[in-house]
Structure formats: C-alpha cells, structure tokens
Specification:
The protein has helices at 36-44, 68-81, 95-105, 127-131, 135-144, 154-158, 165-174, 181-184, 204-209, 213-220, 236-239, 241-249, and strands at residues 21-25, 48-51, 87-92, 110-116, 148-149, 178-179, 198-202, 225-229. It is α/β, with parallel strands linked by helices and 253 residues long. Helix 1 links the parallel strand 1 (21-25) and strand 2 (48-51). Helix 1 (36-44) packs across helix 12 (241-249) and helix 2 (68-81) packs across helix 3 (95-105). The two termini are 16 Å apart.
Length: 253
C-alpha cells in the first residue's frame, strides 16, 4: 500500500502507477465527513485514503482541553500508529496550520503536503493572527461560547460563493464549535516551509486577499512548491470534488 520515495519536484511527486496514501485533515468545525466526496473518488482510482477527525470535534469530547499541539500530535501519532510512510498530507483552511507543522517535523513520512484554501503556519503566530480576522473579536466570541470557536451562521454560509443550499444545510447541521485554543495559540515550527514538497490549492480570491501574501510570494520561488487555482469558494471539496480529486490524483502521475 505504500509508495517508494523519490526525488520530489514541482511537476512530479510520487512514482508513476503507485498507490498513493492520502491523509485528509478537516479544517475548523468539521470532521472527516467533509472529505467524503473526495475520498470516494480517490478510492475508485485505487488510492488509499484516511479521513481524520481532530480531537475535540467528536461528540462528547472535552474540547476545552484541546490545544494546538494536541491537533499536531494527533496527526503525527496517526501517521506513526498506522505505520504510514510516503503520505500525501492534505489540510483545509485552519488545518493548514496543523499539517504544515506536521510535514516540517515528519518529512521522512510525509512525501507531499497539500494546502487547500489553507492558512500557512508562521512560527510564533496563531491562526487568528495570520488569518486577517479581528483577533480581539474572535477571542471574545470564543470566551462567550465556553472556549469554543463558534461555527459559521446560516447567513455567513449563504454569503460564501459556490455553496448550494444542500451544502449550506450540511455544514449548518454537522459543524461543531471548534476548540478555541487551537486558533489562539502560536504555531511552533521545526524546520522551514521552504523545505517542504507542497501544493497550494485555492480560489483566486483567497490568494488575492490573503494576509500571508508575502509568505506565499516567497514560497512561489521555491521549486518544491506549486500553486493551483480552483474556482470553488472556500469549500472546494464540496463544490468542486471532481477537480480537487483530479489535482490530488495528479500527484501520483
């Protein structure tokens, strides 16, 4: 089930014809279910797919005890306990902060990291700080919500481009309050993003408005990074599952 490592470049990641191992990590408020449409397609192509749900997002869990390093350690422990090597580690939105840290620490296990509409980890800065959101306001929301970062409202979801009523209803009914400490605590980087083999997939609007524009511009100069545009809004795994699957599958060709 595992792929052999090779020299990784921007145009070719894993050996042709090999089964690729994908570990899909959801962003804030969501569980592994958010990847269902992608996972089904990748498995039909013969790949191995793992859909993670991060600590604090399962029913009955004590989210107040979950820290950012809890999520980072959970992904690292998953790779180790499942004996996964040569993995394509995929993160969406908030979990870009997580998978970026994991990939930098476990480069012997992560062959390639994929950031989908994702924030990039910056040493010493929290997700809220790199997001461009009003940090004071978001922290107040977390405090008012018992330590949980509240999921988007119906109005907020309806304002998102590309989301049909079906997808709005899915997110509205299934998303949960997200452990607040994970978005207020600073990332701890071991190694540099420059050294990763990575792909960044986003809507054009995401890159154009990103507060991390300078970081993205620097990473564009790295041969091991590539950037792809998908017109699917912030949840392209829901709105454009075929195109996202195609881009992920290309990593193995």
């Amino acid at each position: 089930m595992q792929c052999n490592r090779r020299v990784l470049g921007a145009s070719q990641v894993l050996q042709v014809g090999r089964i690729v191992i994908y570990v899909l990590v959801p962003g804030a408020w969501a569980g592994g279910w958010v990847w269902d449409a992608i996972a089904v397609r990748l498995r039909r192509l013969g790949h191995a797919v793992h859909q993670m749900t991060l600590p604090g997002l399962e029913k009955g869990e004590c989210a107040e005890k979950v820290h950012l390093n809890t999520h980072v350690n959970a992904v690292m422990d998953y790779l180790v306990s499942h004996e996964l090597n040569d993995v394509v580690l995929v993160g969406h939105s908030y979990s870009g902060i997580v998978v970026g840290q994991v990939s930098a620490r476990l480069q012997h296990r992560v062959a390639h990291c994929v950031f989908i509409e994702a924030f990039l980890p910056v040493a010493g800065k929290s997700m809220l700080e790199v997001s461009g959101l009003d940090v004071t306001h978001e922290k107040q929301l977390i405090d008012d919500n018992g330590g949980l970062w509240p999921a988007p409202t119906l109005e907020e979801l309806k304002s998102q481009p590309g989301l049909s009523d079906e997808w709005v209803n899915l997110l509205l009914t299934r998303q949960k309050g997200h452990p607040g400490k994970t978005v207020t605590e600073p990332a701890v980087m071991v190694g540099s993003l420059d050294n990763l083999s990575a792909t960044f997939i986003s809507d054009a609007g995401w890159l154009n408005s990103s507060p991390e524009a300078d970081l993205v511009a620097a990473l564009r100069k790295q041969d091991s990074w590539r950037f792809k545009t998908v017109n699917g809004g912030h949840w392209p795994m829901l709105t454009q599952p075929g195109e996202i699957t195609m881009l992920l599958d290309e990593l193995g060709t």
